[in-house]
Amino acid sequence: MEKKNLDWGNLGFEYQVTDKRYVSNYKNGAWDEGALVSDDTLVISEDAGVLHYSQSVFEGLKAYTTEDDHIVCFRPDMNAARMCDSAQRLEMPAFPQDRFVKAVEEVVKANAAWVPPFGTGASLYVRPVMFATGRVIGVKPANEYQFRIFVTPVGPYFKGGVKPIVVKISDFDRAAPRGTGHVKAGLNYAMSLHALEIAHHEGFAENIFLDAATHTKLEETGGANILLVDRSGNLVVPKSDSILPSITRRSIVDVAKNHLGMNVIEREVFLTEVDNGDFVECGLCGTAAVISPIGKINDHGKEICFESGMEEIGPVMKKLYDTLTGMQSGRIEAPAGWVHRIM
Ligand SMILES: *Cc1c(COP(=O)(O)O)cnc(C)c1O
Question: pTM for the whole thing?
Answer without folding.
Answer: 0.97
